[in-house]
Amino acid sequence: MPTPSSRRFTIRPVTADDAATGEQFYRDAGVTLVGPLAILLQTGNAFLAAYDASGRLQGLVRHWDDEGVAWWDLLVSASAGAGRMLIRGVEMRAQDRGLRFVRLMAPDGSRLLPVFHRWGYRTVGHTREEHEGELVTMAVLEKRLALLTVREQRRSDAAEIGRITGEDPWVYEQGSRPGVFVAADGDRVAGVVSARDGKGGLALISEPALLDAYRGRGLELWMIERAATYAETNGYHTAEVPASPALDSQRRGLEDRHWHLEGAGKAARYVRRFRDLDAQPRDED
User: Whole-prediction pTM value?
Assistant: First the structure.
């Protein structure tokens, strides 16, 4: 479940429309950027912003990838909890891209080091860098992220599946059930999806069930695709999943993967026909 602080903030990427507000936010915090924020956004820099319930900007952080490692810096927070949520936002995005490590640098001996240590970061080295106009020793901190994946259900997942779906976990305690998959964050089960026989070559894929903290990260699409792969490889010619409001944000991604919205109202569903895909001509190399 979301923590109290996570309910207070909305975390989203900074866009060109946010540049002026973000630049002023950094200026008010005494942080000097290497150039206008609008230009930084156009030259490969990515920022996340934290907004409170009234839409006021409460925090910013820059993040990037370097040789398979996620990095962040320029963290500024004007409200308790916003900084932690921004860092968690960076970590979640790295995890979604399959990255296993997140790093940052902080002045050696900084009072923030114990805070970062409590958040799971460990000092893995030191380097000399220019910081606020002086050459100082910087500690390199690193956090190892759990591997986020969608995999087959295991007997040990039974209790978590029961909590997420409300179903009797006894069924899952008997062993792995064909067509049942879980979204796993390391050892933690974060979501469940299944594909069952709808007769006549139709596979019925359940609406992905996810813990609140994992919604809206694209996992729903990943889970549906995993169940669809199972259906296709087990001889089904068609699969469908209910078109619930929870999947509205995934519509573009579903359509890109040949899911078509059919029906209306409570009967609306996304349908994918595997044989139609097989019949489509393929581009030659």
Answer: 0.67
